[in-house]
Design goal:
33% of the residues lie in helices and 28% in strands. It is α/β, with parallel strands linked by helices. The two termini are 36 Å apart. Bound molecules: adenosine-5'-diphosphate (ADP) and magnesium ion (MG). Magnesium ion is lined by residues 42-43, 83, 154.
């Protein structure tokens, strides 16, 4: 059953179209990822779901509530980690946790969660004196402290070191297992693949793919990557002309790499053989979520 419904969502800032008609549903108990280049409208979408921004058009429902009109009901249901948390600089970590916990009916032990995120020694430190990564970990704590039905996590692990990131992944998994639906914005493909049941790839305010991670990869035009080494110069336009070849590039390590369909593999080898090119250490692998992301988004972010 869908706990979040977004229909025809549109939001502009002056002449900038930030969100240009987004439809999505998030099922209860899902971990749903939002991926996209900088400026593609991810944060705006999350802010509209949280009821922090009023859409210009379209409808958002969270557990049946309009998050702007039913602000109080939504606040109790939803925990939000925003990219710009903006807590008072003088508030200590402990004070912030206790203030946030007081809003909810059945909060978890926020101090224990903060401790798990490495904030144990910082409980009496003021927000303004925390490092960026510590502020980030506090924001995650505050989003989850209320045992919300829905947690919205914008750039979950940006700025965290690899160890903290792993801990955050475990916490997200456990939070979902305890019954919270999670929407997370991420730039890390590995994170999306590891955590998300489904993802939406957003580009320039529109969804360009919405599926499981495997489905997103399988849905792109060139789901296979072939690479090989060669000492003979390769005629790139000739390879690009083979039907089913989406891209040919020379990697930093000198290997030639092609994105292509399965059907194009043999014709490419034939073309190489005809030209006397012997592909050394030939490898043919499935495309990754990184390849899919590049295929599904424009070359440049809008920012
Ligand atoms: P993302 O989170 O994907 O980077 P955002 O939703 O933050 O994208 O931004 C989408 C677009 O809207 C960008 O072009 C951004 O510059 C613009 N934008 C975001 N917030 C504002 C704002 N408060 N005022 C004006 N423009 C904004
Ligand atoms: Mg953002």
């Amino acid at each position: 059953m869908a706990i979040i419904e977004v229909r025809g969502l549109r939001k502009t800032y002056g002449s900038t179209v930030a969100v240009d008609g987004i439809d999505l549903e998030v099922d209860e108990g899902e971990i749903f990822g939002i991926l996209g280049p900088n400026g593609s409208g991810k944060t705006t979408t999350v802010e509209c779901i949280a009821g922090l921004r009023k859409p210009d058009a379209g409808a958002v429902r969270v557990a049946g509530f309009d998050p702007v009109r039913n602000r109080d009901s939504t606040t109790k249901l939803v925990g939000v980690q925003l990219q710009r948390a903006g807590l008072p600089a003088k508030q200590t970590v402990r004070e912030a946790i206790s203030l946030y916990a007081s809003v909810y009916d059945d909060p978890i032990d926020g101090v224990a969660l903060a401790d798990r995120l490495g904030l144990g020694p910082k409980l009496d430190t003021r927000y303004g004196n925390l490092s960026g990564g510590q502020q980030q970990r506090l924001a995650i704590t505050l989003a989850l402290v209320g045992r919300p039905r829905v947690a919205l996590l914008d750039e979950l692990s940006t700025g965290l070191d690899p160890r903290s990131r792993r801990e955050v992944w475990d916490i997200v998994d456990e939070t979902r297992d305890a019954g919270t639906t999670i929407v997370l914005v991420t730039h890390f493909m590995e994170e999306a693949r590891h955590l998300c049941d489904r993802l939406a790839v957003i580009d320039q305010g529109r969804i360009t793919a919405l599926d499981t991670p495997e489905g997103v990869i399988g849905g792109i035009g060139a789901p296979t990557v072939m690479s090989f080494a060669t000492t003979i110069p390769v005629d790139t336009p000739l390879l690009e002309g083979v039907s089913g070849v989406a891209a040919v590039r020379r990697r930093d390590d000198g290997r030639v790499e092609l994105s292509l369909t399965d059907e194009a593999v043999l014709p490419v080898l034939q073309v190489l053989a005809d030209r006397g090119v012997h592909p050394d250490r030939l490898r043919i692998v499935d495309a990754t979520l990184d390849d899919a992301f590049l295929d599904l988004t424009s070359r440049e972010g809008q920012e």
